[in-house]
Design goal:
Elements (H helix, E strand, L loop, with lengths): L23 H8 L20 H8 L2 H6 L4 H4 L3 H19 L2 E6 L2 E6 L7 E3 L1 H25 L4 H4 L5 H5 L21 E8 L5 E7 L6 H14 L1 H6 L6 H16 L10 E4 L8 H11 L3 E2 L4 E4 L2 E6 L2 E4 L2 E4 L22 H6 L4 E3 L16 H9 L10 E3 L3 H10 L6 E5 L4 E2 L2 E2 L19 E5 L5 E6 L2 E15 L5 E3 L4 E4 L14 E3 L1 E3 L17 H6 L6 H32 L6 H14 L13 H12 L11 H13 L7 H25 L7 H24 L5 H27 L6 H10 L3 H7 L6 H10 L7 H12 L6 H8 L11 H4 L4 H31 L10
Parallel strand pairs: 3-23, 6-7, 6-11, 11-12
Antiparallel strand pairs: 1-2, 4-5, 4-19, 8-9, 9-10, 13-17, 14-17, 15-16, 18-19, 19-20, 19-21, 21-22
Length: 879
């Protein structure tokens, strides 16, 4: 007796395997799990045949082309293996590009790889036409509602909308009542979550108006999936989406241009909560694609009811903001006082109509599910037309008749979903709405706070994995964008999210995954490019992006952390090589390395020195090397690598994909090398020195590549100069500290000590080529102090520092103040100053110089921070 369908294994449920060389259409049917009753199947017709769009898709694949006379190479293509390979290609591309989203949990924020399925969701032209009309109407309706509810409030007077849905909702911002935003429109972009019911009709499940997310992921999903199926993308006539992004940018610019004196080019920025936002990757990706500066709240300031960007050159006016910070976090003066993400005074600037905000704050109340039941009547009243796109059946419990009706139909509400009408307060801000899992009787305590919605079984979209085509519940987010005249256009595509199963969440935070969304067209395919129209010579200067103060600071510290890590790697190699070699290192050499290791963070304070206990010191160094949290009390290599990665994360819009990927691989490679022994021997197990030395060698190569990318792959703007200055300042402090430590310990009286210091300066080859038979202090001073051509000598570092400091923004007086902290020329000491001196006198002079230069480097770092990164002293405002 065969088992029932409920206990069939995954493989047993599949159709017979297609014959070798069969096309993708037969494979899709053979490997597809059985259709689920009561839901719409995106892949198959009710009779089990492939839908026409999927037959056309399959016909574009290599094996299908071979059946019509393709090349011999194509004839060897196994469709299943081909799809598996493409799945791997998609995952590899996401890793290469560093596409992530942040997941919040009890342990904090963790960055996870973005999840993208191979196969797209395909929508036919006739279906899309209906969606497009319905979504555009919905967007126009929401804009009309905002104009009314922040204006004359006819909807409240005529009882078309219960007052509780507005006045109790924290998303309705009383400070904006009666105000009209700059440009006259509150919504420039809106998102709508659509589901397909069992009958194949589309229904609206939710709408997002505050800061609709996903546009960056939509764009990247399209780039990745379209490359996997270029023939199908072309032959199916998939509509392109680039013009929608251009439309969004043009819409903001057109409204903001009126705010620019003389009608010049406005400055638009993209405001992000920062690297710990759930969708920070897409903020950085979208900013780069649109050509906008990516800024955080701390980068902006309001002065005289006008918004300014803090840059390293002063305050620059901002005329438009593409906002990705939720309403209640936008302005700590008038909204949440604990917000560190917003801009004090932003609402006053909005009321003064001196900046265009996309979207304007104050629309969050439109996201409540309770609103859906009232929209048909509101649409008739405001637009004088019926609502085209239906909503999920919705009953607001605050209306007694509706609550009684739904209880009569389903007393236990087993066939319905109960959601909160108002946002639920949480530590990370207001949530839009939450599913209520409590007893039905609790609703009666505050009926207005609850909304009941019908439970829909979502359509199943096909996903390929492990050789099986699995149907998964799908929801599509589509985007409406207003043009400069207020007309709404719908992006021909969207973000499709699929759940793991019937009861699983669609949220990417909880295991959901995404699909590209292909909208087919019967008309011409849009060939638009994001490249704008021809520039005029006057446009060129205006389009140079300013360097925000925070960006400059992160670049400055990126340079410092890169140099600091490189110096630590060299110090760690020297220390571990000495302990492993059982060398006859003298006590001064051991003391010099021990003091340097503690001072630089390689070993914790208080550990017995190399001279006292080499093995204990070695264990302390090994323990600290992989400690990214400095739990050991030492800020060693892993700690500085983590700081370097954080600085780079905050610069995602500034760094190339290759450079960011290089930094990630560098950090992961070192962490994996040091975590191996812990995985095998427990949390307290330490890696063996030979393994660590090999890991340090690999890390040194990575750092050389990172340095090369910083030197040769970045534009020489003010940000790059700050990165370079940061690196040189750290190098100046580092070489000065190393010279001082060896002189204080008396470690330069033997050839071994000289060799060790040369290794730390990375100057062994230079020294040997010039002073083959000399190891006295004067020869050492020649190479490590006086030689301006050696990039790691005192003179070489100072020469480059003076050059780069002279090119930083600012007047002559400010730059002169920086230069005054350094020796006027050379290394601050000349050969003539050492003439006639014995080694003791040379050593004393070099030690005094090292102390002065270390202090000068620290003072210069502070002065640069005060000048460029703290704009409280109000640099010149440019209007």
């Amino acid at each position: 007796m065969s088992p029932g369908p409920q206990v069939l294994s995954r493989q047993a449920a599949l159709s017979p395997e297609p014959a070798a060389g069969a096309g993708l259409d037969r494979l899709l049917l053979a490997r597809a799990l059985p259709p689920q009753p009561g839901v719409w199947d995106e892949l198959r017709e009710p009779d089990g045949a492939l839908r026409a769009r999927w037959r056309r898709f399959a016909a574009c694949m290599p094996a299908a082309r071979d059946a019509g006379g393709g090349s011999p190479r194509d004839s060897a293509v196994d469709p299943a293996a081909d799809l598996d390979r493409r799945v791997g290609d998609v995952a590899a591309e996401l890793r290469r590009a560093g596409v992530t989203h942040n997941v919040f949990g009890a342990g904090g924020v963790a960055s996870r790889p973005w999840s993208l399925e191979l196969l797209p969701l395909i929508i036919e032209p006739a279906e899309w036409s209906a969606i497009e009309r319905g979504v555009a109407q919905r967007a126009a309706l929401l804009e009309a509602m905002l104009a009314d509810l922040y204006g004359g409030q006819r909807l409240l007077r005529d009882a078309l909308l219960p007052a509780a849905l507005l006045l109790r909702h924290p998303g309705w911002l009383r400070p904006l009542l009666g105000s009209v935003p700059a440009g006259g429109q509150r919504l420039l972009i809106a998102a709508f979550d659509l589901v397909r019911g069992p009958d194949g009709g589309w229904t609206l499940a939710a709408q997002r108006t505050q800061v609709p997310s996903g546009l960056g992921y939509v764009l990247h999903n399209r780039l990745v999936v379209a490359r996997q199926f270029p023939d199908a993308f072309r032959e199916l006539r998939v509509q392109r989406i680039a013009s929608s992004y251009r439309l969004l940018l043009d819409s903001i610019e057109q409204r903001a241009r009126a705010l620019v004196p003389g009608g010049g080019a406005p400055r638009i920025v993209l405001l992000t909560p920062g690297p710990y936002a759930e969708t920070y990757f897409e903020h950085a990706y979208l900013a780069r694609y649109l050509g906008l500066p990516l800024v955080e709240g701390g980068d902006l300031a309001v002065r005289g009811e006008r918004l300014f960007l803090k840059t390293v050159e002063g305050l620059e006016p901002v005329h438009g903001v593409l906002r990705r910070v939720d309403d209640d976090w936008c302005d700590p003066l008038e909204l949440r006082p604990d917000s560190a993400l917003g801009v004090p005074g932003l609402l006053q600037a909005a009321r003064a109509r001196t900046v265009v905000l996309a979207n304007a704050p104050g629309s969050a109340f439109l996201e409540t599910p309770a609103l859906q039941g009232f929209l048909p009547g509101i649409c008739r009243a405001l637009l004088d037309e019926p609502l085209l796109l239906p909503s999920v059946p919705t009953w607001w419990c605050g209306e007694a008749a509706a609550w009684d009706d739904v209880r009569r139909r389903d007393p236990a509400l087993a066939g319905h979903v109960v959601r909160s009408t108002y946002p639920i307060a949480a530590s990370d801000g207001w949530r839009t709405s939450q599913v209520f899992d409590g007893p039905v009787s609790a609703i009666g305590d505050d009926p207005e706070a609850f909304t009941v919605q019908g439970r829909l079984r979502l359509a199943r979209a096909p996903t390929w994995g492990d050789g099986v085509l699995a149907p998964r519940p799908a929801m599509v987010r589509v985007y409406a964008i207003a043009d400069g005249e207020g007309r709404w256009h719908v992006l021909p595509g969207g973000m499709t999210r699929v759940a793991r199963g019937e009861a699983a969440s669609l949220s990417m935070q909880r295991g959901g995954t995404s699909l590209d969304t292909w909208v087919l067209t019967d008309g011409p395919v849009d060939g638009f490019s994001m490249l704008p129209s021809r520039l005029s010579p006057d446009d060129i200067g205006r389009r140079r992006r300013p360097v925000a103060s925070r960006t400059g600071e992160n670049l400055f510290w990126l340079g410092r952390y890169t140099e600091r890590t490189e110096q630590l790697v060299r110090l760690a190699r020297a220390t571990l090589t000495l302990t492993e070699a059982d060398s006859d290192a003298s006590a001064p050499e051991q003391r010099a390395l021990s003091d340097l290791a503690v001072r630089c963070g390689l070993a914790p304070a208080g550990v017995p020195s190399l001279a006292q206990s080499p093995r204990l010191f070695e264990r302390a160094v090994l323990s600290a090397l992989g400690d990214s949290q400095a739990r050991s009390g030492a800020c060693s290599v892993a700690f500085n690598l983590a700081a370097l990665e954080r600085a780079s994360q905050a610069l995602r819009d500034q760094l190339s994909v290759e450079q960011w990927g290089l930094i990630l691989r560098m950090c992961e490679s070192f962490a994996d090398a040091l975590d191996g022994p812990r995985r095998e021997g427990g949390a307290d197990a330490l890696p063996r020195p030979p393994e660590v030395l090999a890991a340090l060698d690999r890390l040194a190569l990575y750092l050389a590549a990172v340095t090369g990318a910083q030197t040769d792959r970045m534009v020489r703007d003010h940000g790059w100069r700050l990165l370079t200055v940061g690196r040189l300042v750290e190098r100046l402090i580092g070489v000065a500290e190393r010279m001082r430590a060896f002189l204080d310990a008396g470690a330069l009286q033997r050839a071994a000590g000289v060799e060790l210091l040369l290794e730390l300066f990375d100057s062994v080859i230079t020294f040997r080529s010039r002073h083959q038979s000399h190891e006295d202090l004067l020869a050492l001073a020649d190479v490590l102090v006086l030689d301006g051509t050696n990039p790691r000598s005192f003179a070489g570092v100072l020469r480059r520092l003076r050059t780069e400091l002279g090119k930083l923004p600012g007047d002559g007086r400010a730059l002169a103040a920086f230069l005054a902290l350094l020796p006027a020329e050379g290394a601050g000491i000349a050969v003539a100053d050492l003439r006639g001196c014995d080694d003791a006198q040379v050593g004393a002079a070099l030690r005094a110089l090292a102390v002065r230069l270390a202090a000068a480097g620290a003072g210069l770092a502070d002065a640069i921070g005060e000048r460029y990164f703290d704009v409280a002293h109000e640099l010149e405002q440019r209007v």
